[in-house]
């Protein structure tokens, strides 16, 4: 009876072993893909935030020389943008309001661009830039 049990139950045993091996392999591959995707997405957000900060700091320096009321409003908006960026939680990937804060920063950036009469396009290019004649 034991000889036939091994034969009859072989399919179920092999199915279970194959499932466990596939689950382990899929989990490993999924973790590697998740890390790669997370690093890429994080780099894009970092590049975007860095661009906004560089923009804000540059304009803040340029507008310091003029002290009229219009520029004081612009400087106040730039200060607000800089403050938002400095408070952004770069090191905490589990921060639950990351997307909300990022959208607020994007909105403030667009507001500042509007105040400065500047087009607010921000695009990350994956291709190398080149000059054409």
UniProtKB/TrEMBL annotation:
It comes from the Eukaryota. InterPro entries: Essential_protein_Yae1_N, LTO1_adapter. Residues 18-56 form the Essential protein Yae1 N-terminal domain. Pfam families: Yae1_N (PF09811). Belongs to the LTO1 family. This is ORAV1 protein. It comes from Catharus fuscescens.
């Amino acid at each position: 009876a034991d000889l036939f049990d091994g034969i009859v139950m072989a399919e179920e045993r092999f199915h279970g072993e194959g499932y466990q091996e596939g689950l382990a392999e899929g989990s490993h591959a999924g973790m590697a893909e998740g890390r790669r995707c997370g690093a890429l997405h994080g780099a894009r957000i970092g590049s975007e935030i860095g661009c906004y900060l560089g923009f804000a700091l540059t304009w803040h320096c340029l507008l310091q020389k003029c002290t009229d009321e219009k520029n004081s409003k612009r400087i106040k908006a730039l200060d607000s943008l800089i403050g938002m960026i400095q408070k952004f939680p770069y090191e905490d990937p589990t921060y639950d309001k990351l997307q909300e804060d990022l959208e607020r920063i994007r909105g403030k950036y667009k507001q500042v661009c509007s105040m400065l009469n500047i087009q607010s396009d921000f695009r990350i290019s994956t291709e190398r830039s080149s000059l054409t004649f």
